[in-house]
């Protein structure tokens, strides 16, 4: 089993004998690799984008036709299977040609199970400024860059919350954001899902401002979501809301089954 970054995986496929490839993107590159060697290709969910009808760029569609890959991501003839958290909704959206499998555990349950382990191994590097409890929190998850208009909006809402936080996008490597009075900036590589779980467990009420972030989906209504880009990408926002609702129902069903046990 080889785990590698997204810009190295195809080199391993070419160099080594690969029986099964699990990847988050159904691309023409996979079709091209099938002309070189054979392997079983499986797609797995990576956020709400997996459920949207993402199409290959028009300039590459002639290549997709030659290679036999689908124009819509997730419809390639090379796919042996797809792993997602909500199979029925995925099939409604994408209409794949292969089998669709459901992950064994819901993402929310995985977060709960793994967050305690994460906290144990990261105690020494855990940001001190986020260790709050029984408070009202406003969190801004920035895009690749922050928007000053969003920060101004946060400051106007200051009286409604006990704490204001900004978590820069993971791709922003430098800790170079300007300071804003009354707002703490969280510089950490931890998954934001772990951060939200930590706050929920400590009795906090959380509102998250974001740009089409999928981090809010697993919590299914346990936090307040403000999608700053919902008007610019309504179809994507519709998928976000649908997945959040499905997760809420799934979480309720899980809690009910646990209480019966």
Descriptive tags:
alpha/beta; four-stranded parallel sheet; elongated
Question: Could you outline the blueprint of secondary structure elements for this entry?
Answer:
Layout (H helix, E strand, L loop, with lengths): L8 H7 L4 E4 L4 H6 L6 E5 L16 H7 L11 E6 L2 H8 L4 E4 L4 H15 L14 E6 L6 H9 L6 E5 L15 E3 L6 H10 L3 E6 L13 E4 L6 H27 L1
Parallel strand pairs: 1-2, 2-3, 3-4, 5-6, 5-8, 6-7, 8-9
Helix pairs in contact: 5-7
Overall description:
This protein is of the alpha/beta class and 261 residues long. It is built from 8 helices and 9 strands. It has helices at 9-15, 28-33, 61-67, 87-94, 107-121, 148-156, 192-201, 234-260, and strands at residues 20-23, 40-44, 79-84, 99-102, 136-141, 163-167, 183-185, 205-210, 224-227. It has a 5-stranded parallel beta sheet, sandwiched between helices. Helix 4 (87-94) links the parallel strand 3 (79-84) and strand 4 (99-102). Helix 5 crosses helix 7. The two termini are 37 Å apart.
The backbone outline, from C-alpha atoms, is elongated
- The structure class reads alpha/beta
N/C terminus separation = 37 Å
What helical percentage do the residues reach? 25-40%
Mean of all residue-level pLDDT scores: 85
The main β sheet shows up as: 5 strands, parallel
Strand order of the largest sheet: 7-6-5-8-9
Low-confidence stretches: none
Using only C-alpha atoms, the radius of gyration works out to 21 Å
Number of helices: 8
State the order of secondary-structure elements, H for helix, E for strand: HEHEHEHEHEHEEHEEH
Number of strands: 9
